[in-house]
């Protein structure tokens, strides 16, 4: 997938002034938050599960080579084949070679964020294959020729009216000429169209939520069952997964599954939690003839060896995105790549390079909600601060930003000058606020206040002055 992360500022501005997008985001935002809250509140041991999940992921990352080798050996025992991809290009080429060897003409895909990350669809379509997404959200954005705007709800930015128009335009060639408006009717029509795609596909490609080292299983969780059909009906199955998805055993996996559904969609568990471990055996009624797993590094090993290792604990639940005020205001497309929100603001610079995504670490208020709701306790604000530090050291910010930070650094190291400047500033802003008690314009904050925001005016004295006047004591 082509990246446009360097265009974040322009895309964010456009998103803020897009009434259709704002309407769609407003309808979806509270649902995720409330459902997660209710599901978590109903499970007394949720925080204990989080602590255990951190232990599991940290242990696995500490011994990642061991568990990956165990997983490969188990897959081979089950009759499957494991392929290792160092980067996105190698991953694409492996998938293309498998499809060529199978003489495939059509491919169906279950939802796979790592597939989006390495650009599987574009590579296969360039080879002349028909590639059809089977997750309803992914199917919608494929028809719209758009990237996903959320990792668990790819079409969250689409309104019902937009989806109705898409289906009316693209489904006419299958004999569906009536324009539908009800959600249930739209879903049923999509199922009817996709049914023939399942039956005729040569290759099925899915992602994996977890890879179990002890038995070679890959686990996918869905609410539509499309992953099951994609994995069992075609004669060749391909699983694409990042190397960090491996988990030692089934007991550890159940701990993570109890966190995943509650954090992602507010469900105790998703409708389908399916395990696949290899090609069809002689006694099996269905299943693929060939089973391939493509394990993808694409920068993950580098993260394993530096201060960003904790990001590899991510189980792709999307909780940080759902609770992010920045994402809630601009949606996912503004981030310009596969992963939006706080987790994307960390992953994109690490995967594509800080120069390509220099604005993303700054697309955060550092309010800490993402860390608070993360089921595996990733300290996302700390990681974003680390990226900002790297950015400053590499002189990737604007000249104005560098000069501003340098001036601020000079000032705060000189207490007397700092108190004088802040005292003058407080009095000036208090005067500008006047009787209204608030400010509509503040120097250097034009963009922040452009949307009609106001800022309470200071009372005319600084915190230090008030503290000194009270003798260094707070209210009794």
UniProtKB/TrEMBL annotation:
Protein's UniProt name: Iron-sulfur cluster binding protein
Source lineage: Bacteria, Pseudomonadati, Pseudomonadota, Gammaproteobacteria, Chromatiales
Stored InterPro entries: 4Fe4S_Fe-S-bd (IPR017896), 4Fe4S_Fe_S_CS (IPR017900), FTHF_cligase-like_sf (IPR024185), Helical_ferredxn (IPR009051), LUD_dom (IPR003741), LutB/LldF (IPR004452), NagB/RpiA_transferase-like (IPR037171)
GO terms under biological process: lactate metabolic process
UniProt entry keywords in alphabetical sequence: 4Fe-4S, Electron transport, Iron, Iron-sulfur, Metal-binding, Repeat, Transport
Superkingdom of the source species: Bacteria
Annotated 4Fe-4S ferredoxin-type domain residues: 305-335
Cytoplasm keyword on record: no
């Amino acid at each position: 997938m082509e990246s446009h992360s360097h265009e974040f500022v322009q895309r964010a501005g456009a998103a803020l002034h897009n009434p259709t997008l704002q309407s769609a985001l407003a309808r979806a935002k509270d649902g995720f938050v409330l459902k997660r809250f209710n599901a978590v509140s109903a499970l007394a041991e949720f925080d204990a599960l989080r602590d255990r999940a951190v232990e599991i992921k940290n242990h696995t990352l500490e011994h990642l080579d061991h568990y990956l080798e165990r997983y490969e050996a188990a897959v081979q025992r089950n009759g499957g084949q494991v392929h290792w991809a160092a980067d996105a290009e190698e991953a694409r080429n492996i998938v293309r070679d498998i499809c060529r060897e199978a003489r495939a003409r059509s491919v169906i895909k279950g939802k796979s964020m790592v597939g989006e990350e390495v650009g599987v669809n574009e590579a296969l379509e360039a080879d002349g294959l028909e590639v059809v997404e089977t997750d309803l959200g992914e199917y919608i954005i494929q028809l719209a020729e758009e990237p996903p705007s959320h990792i668990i709800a790819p079409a969250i930015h689409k309104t019902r009216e937009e989806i109705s128009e898409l289906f009316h335009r693209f489904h006419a060639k299958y004999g569906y000429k009536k324009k539908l408006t009800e959600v249930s009717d739209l879903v049923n029509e999509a199922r009817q169209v996709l049914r023939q795609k399942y039956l005729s596909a040569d290759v099925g490609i899915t992602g994996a939520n977890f890879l179990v080292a002890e038995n070679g299983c890959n686990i996918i969780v869905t609410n539509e069952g499309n992953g099951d059909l994609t994995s069992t009906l075609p004669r060749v199955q391909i699983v694409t997964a990042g190397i960090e998805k491996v988990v030692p055993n089934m007991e550890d996996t159940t701990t993570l599954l109890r966190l995943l559904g509650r954090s992602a969609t507010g469900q105790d568990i998703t409708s389908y939690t399916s395990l696949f471990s290899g090609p069809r055996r002689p006694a099996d009624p269905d299943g693929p003839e060939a089973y391939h797993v493509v394990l993808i590094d694409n920068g993950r090993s580098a993260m394993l060896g530096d201060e960003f290792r904790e990001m590899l604990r991510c189980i792709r639940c999307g909780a940080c995105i759902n609770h992010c005020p920045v994402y809630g205001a601009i949606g996912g497309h503004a981030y310009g790549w596969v992963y939006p929100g706080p987790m994307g603001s960390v992953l994109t610079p690490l995967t594509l390079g800080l120069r390509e995504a220099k604005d993303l670490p700054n697309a955060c208020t550092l309010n800490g909600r993402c860390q608070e709701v993360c089921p595996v306790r990733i300290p996302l604000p700390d990681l974003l601060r680390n990226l900002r530090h790297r950015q400053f050291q590499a002189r990737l910010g604007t000249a104005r930003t560098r000069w501003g930070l340098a001036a601020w650094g000079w000032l705060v190291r000189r207490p007397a000058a700092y108190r004088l400047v802040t005292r003058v500033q407080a009095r000036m802003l208090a005067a500008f606020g006047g009787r209204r008690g608030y400010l509509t314009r503040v120097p250097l904050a034009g963009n922040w206040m452009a949307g009609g925001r106001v800022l309470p005016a200071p009372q005319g004295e600084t915190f230090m002055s008030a503290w000194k006047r009270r003798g260094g004591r707070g209210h009794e």
